[in-house]
Each structure stands twice: as C-alpha cells, then as structure tokens.
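A common beginner's mistake is to predict each chain separately and then try to dock the pieces by hand. The better habit, illustrated here, is to supply every component at once so that their relative placement is modeled jointly.
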Amino acid sequence: MTENILTDAERIEWFENNYSEVKEKIALACRESGRDVNDIILLAATKTVPVSVINHAINSGINFIGENRVQELLSKTDALDKTVHKHFIGTLQTNKIKYIINEVEMIESVPSVKAAEEIGRLAVKNGKTMDILLEINIGNEESKSGFLPAEAETAIKEVSKTPGVRIMGLMAIPPICDKKQDICEYFCKMEKMFIDISAKNIDNVSMVYLSMGMSDDYYEAIKCGANIVRVGTALFGRRNYNK
Ligand SMILES: *Cc1c(COP(=O)(O)O)cnc(C)c1O
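With all components supplied together, the output reads:
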C-alpha cells in the first residue's frame, strides 16, 4: 500500500488545504450552539506526524498538540517548537509516567485511580502539580480503558484526594458509530456527567475541560459541550503507521 504514504511535503500541503476548513467548522458549531469560539481548544493529534510538519502547523497557529506514545513524544521533544502546549492523550502505562511527568502540561487519558496516584507521586517528587483529565469509557467497552460511567463519581472523589494531581475535566473516546445520532448520544451522556460532577463542587476538582471529538465528529462534539477537540487526520491526512 505504498501509494498511500504521504510525503512530508504532501502532508504540509494537506494541512494548508484543510486547517481553515477545520477552524470554520468549529466556528460554525459554536455559532449554532451559542458558544464562544475562543473557548474551544483545537488540539492537533500528532501521532506519526513528523516534527517538521508539526512545526509548520505550529507556525500556522496550532498551539496545542497531543501525543499518544511516550517514546514518540520524547523523540520529538528536542526538535519541537517550544511554544506549543503538549498533552498526553494515549494509552497510559503506569511504568512510563516518569518519562512524561516533566514533558507535558496535561495528561488527558488517565484511566484509573492507580494511574492518577502514580502521576501524583511523581509530580510531588518533581515539585509540581499535574493537570489531568479522567478518561471515561462512555460506551462501557471491554476493549477500552478508562473509568466506567457508573464508577466515575466515586473514582473522581478518590482521585481528588491525591496530592500532586489536579482534576481539570473529563475525556472520552466514544464507540465507533455508523450514525451521527448514535455518537451524539454518547457525547450528550458525557456532557451530562461533566455538568453533574461540576455541580457537586468536589474539592480539588475543576470541571473546566471536556475533551471529546476527533476528525469525523468534532463538530457534533462541540455541539454537545466539548471544549477540547482532538483532530489528527482532518489536519494532517492519513497516518503512515508503517514508517
Ligand atoms: C489519533 C487520536 C485522535 C485523532 O484521531 P483522528 O481521527 O485522526 O482525528 C484523537 N484522540 C486520540 C486519543 C487519538 O489517539
């Protein structure tokens, strides 16, 4: 399938052709739902995207990126434009947290109390507090990590007592849905949970960020309250996994 591989130049061209469109669609979703476009963070999901392309995107206005793999994140760090805000959005292995504790501003994909406690322990050791989002397995899927909706509130209360971490919101990757209406139901459930937890005013918990929506559904996610959308393919083209 080599004909499917995009060169760096083609990827930059893709970005040039699609960035404005993504921003316009975000603006439209905001207008239609009475929200301020300045409240939405467009986070570029940059897994497999080469640093030269990411830096080009940063120069064009992208100021948040999310990486999925610890090794890849570390290998990109030196060459990456230092102005960008970095989030970790991938599957989090507890034994690798130590490598990213000083490399990212936020860990969005915290799947368990145990992981949150390890983040807290390492943050304290490094004299800092790490902002985290708790990943909710909103579709109750066996194959996915994250807190089950039914256990989320109890878990949040437990994590909120952990020194070194500050819960800033929720993140979700809903099940793959054929119909937009189905994905919207998951997004709406997330919005409801976000609002309900916020209303409980739990100490050390700030429901500021609701991170959901990817290339195919960021428009719907924003309409359901998302304020971080994680967009990869729509900005950079198809990923080359075999590189
Ligand atoms: C890859 C990835 C995205 C972006 O996916 P696209 O469909 O390419 O926009 C968003 N969130 C997470 C957690 C990802 O791993």
